[in-house]
Amino acid sequence: MQYKRMMILTAVILLGYMGGLSRAQEPVTPAMMKANIEAMKVSDVAWRKIDWQPCLLEGLRQARAEGKPALLWVFIDRPADDARC
Amino acid sequence: MFAGAAREAVFSKPEVIRRVRQDFIPVSLKAGLVNRPPDDEEGRLYREIARSQPLPQGICVVNPAGKVLEWVVSFNGDQEVIAFLDHSLKRYHEYPDASKPVAAERFMHFPNRKLDDVMDNGAALPVAERHAAGTHCPATPPIPEGAIEASLVGRAFDKEGQPRPDPLSQEYYVEERFIVPPRVTGKLAELLSGKEEQEVAFPEALFRPFVAHAYLGVLDVAPIFNPGPIKGELLTCEFSAKRVAGSEGLWRITGKSDTSHDDRMCNATPGDLHRVQLDWDGFVLVESGQVTEIIVSAKGRERLKFGTERNLAKSDVSYLPSGHTIDLNSRVRYGIVAEVKAGQPPRSQNRDRLPTGKR
């Protein structure tokens, strides 16, 4: 009975240790965490392929310079360069 | 919702991208500026654009004199998007400047549901080359003193633990920028600067800006800062910090959050809901009494149902103001990096002075 109890205790300690190892694999410095966050980003998303100009005056200036109409995408958001929409 | 749906269903299509880049100058404008313009010459331009708009949001084509040629809210189908660009270009060639009056054409759905034209008021507006020296463009206001700009990335993961592959849908992949306000950075600095304690518990509201932005989906499904009249619930927001041994001013952050909203979200239908439950981990760096860097990562689960009862028989481009149906029940992960920009006080090099293997 005591042997069985010791085995269970050993297993619990081992599992706890392995859990600790698993947690230790998490980023341990800000630079590592920052790199992991950067790695989550998708670099080639379709919606980045249009270079939207946020300034109306600059857009119209470019339109005059290039002899093109300006396409205005008018939408509700929070900060000016908010990427969520 | 309109912007998210338009970005996904219109401005991510290869042929639309090619045509917009080739034939137009693309300009993204905040509806707030168009609908509540500043009281100056630039404001007059915004007012002239707003004078013919069918809804507070939409897609508009103007000539370089700022005269509206077209407004469109939705399209009958994908092909009609290209047809709209062709049509707009044709009208631009007819009315390239303010030398002759032009009526603004307006479509709720292009080309079938056309509203009455809005006639030209005959006024030629002065269009400045640029903003006056010492002034900011109203579309890009400066970051408030003491605030930090944060960038967020969030992803949904499948059952095998792989990131969901479709970055066009914001319920699978989201990037966002937001401002961490001075009251948050100031309070963090106050709580962490020069403290003898090894562990500090934060008040609930302190990490609210981070928790509130950690969600997948469009703006309309925000669980806390929802654009609709009813805000969601912040059920849990428990964060604390432990000093990192061997460093100066570097603190390890851990926390838990739980946010929830229901079918009173903006543009929601009966049965819709949003719940985000996350475990947080990260760092705050405090230097010379100021927070100079915050890096946090969160993992957990997210349940999002949106537009459950919406009738979606047609193409995505035909209901841009309300967007598509979402049914997400997934593991999720978020990362947020907030740091002072160039020109603000320099950071020291101590943020990576951690003994190897220690947390």
Structure, explained:
- The complex is a heterodimer of chains A (85) and B (359).
- Chain A has 85 residues and is mainly α.
- Chain A has one domain (2-66).
- Chain A contains three helices and one strand.
- Chain A has helices at 2-24, 30-39, 56-66, and one strand spanning 70-75.
- Chain B folds into two domains: 2-118, no CATH class; 148-341, no CATH class.
- In chain B, 19% of the residues lie in helices and 34% in strands.
- Chain B has seven helices and 13 strands.
- Chain B has helices at residues 2-9, 14-23, 31-35, 41-50, 78-94, 182-192, 208-213; strands at 25-30, 58-62, 68-75, 104-110, 113-118, 148-157, 173-180, 199-201, 233-243, 250-261, 273-287, 290-306, 326-339.
- In chain B, the strands form two sheets. Chain B has an eight-stranded antiparallel beta sheet.
- Chain B is globular.
- Chain B starts with a helix and ends in a 20-residue tail after the last strand.
- At the A-B interface, helix 2, helix 3 and strand 1 of A face helix 1, helix 2, strand 1, helix 3 and helix 4 of B.
Class inferred from helices and paired strands of chain B? alpha+beta
- CA radius of gyration of chain A is 27 Å
* Fraction in beta strands of chain B: 25-35%
Q: Strand arrangement, largest sheet of chain B?
A: 7-6-13-12-11-10-9-8
> Which percent bin holds the helix content of chain A?
40-55%
Percentage of β-strand residues of chain A: 5-15%
Percent helix range of chain B = 10-25%
Shape of chain B: globular
Q: Biggest interface between protein chains, with counts per chain?
A: A-B, 55 and 91 residues
Rg from alpha-carbon coordinates of chain B: 24 Å
Number of domains of chain B: 2
What key attributes describe this structure?
A: mainly alpha, B: about 350 residues, alpha+beta, eight-stranded antiparallel beta sheet, four-stranded mixed beta sheet, 7 helices, 13 strands, about 20% helix, about 35% strand, disordered C terminus
